[in-house]
Design a protein that fits this description.
This protein is α/β, with parallel strands linked by helices and about 160 residues long. The chain has one domain. Strand 8 and strand 9 form a beta hairpin. About 30% of the residues are buried.
Length: about 160
């Protein structure tokens, strides 16, 4: 049977294979940080720095099976999960754009019909995760997405970031 995987960030499908998401976060943290996850698992809070996580994803090769990449502009599910929440702190449109550009450069479509990637999410406000314009970032996430797509389409140098 052929293996097909959709990467639904920030669930780290590319990096670790355990079923428990908090084991995911601990493993990814220990892979990203030399001081392991202790730096970020303080007082029961579970979080990673968005820039560190994005850079880790940027520098990680895609697997050799059929894998459709995913990205998240930000993540904070405290409103839904309370003490069991997970956060990607310090997210910003510039880092998101760099990560998206990396995905678009690395991803080679499997066919004309299998030429897609996933962005989580358009308006997942309860999980602090949205591309939709907001007071803090305005249109910057949409602009970063548009620019990254245009850059790949027209082979523009990656110089402008959100």
């Amino acid at each position: 049977m052929e293996k097909n995987v959709v990467d639904y960030e920030p669930h780290l499908a590319l990096f670790v294979k355990d079923a428990d998401p908090f084991i995911f976060y601990k493993k990814i943290a220990s892979k990203i940080y030399k001081t392991a996850y202790q730096k970020y698992w303080d007082q029961g809070r579970r979080w990673l720095d968005y820039k560190d996580y994005a850079n880790f994803a940027i520098n990680t090769n895609f697997p050799d099976y059929k894998w459709f990449p995913g990205i998240t502009p930000m993540w904070d599910n405290t409103a839904r999960r309370g003490e069991k929440s997970f956060l990607l702190k310090n997210a910003d449109p510039e880092t998101y754009q760099k990560w998206l550009e990396s995905i678009l450069k690395k991803f080679k479509p499997y066919s004309e019909d299998e030429n897609f990637f996933f962005i989580n999410a358009w308006n997942e406000w309860a999980e602090g995760n949205h591309l939709e314009p907001c007071l803090k970032w305005g249109m910057q996430y949409l602009e970063a997405t548009s620019y990254a797509l245009e850059m790949i389409k027209n082979k523009i140098p990656a110089e402008r970031h959100a």
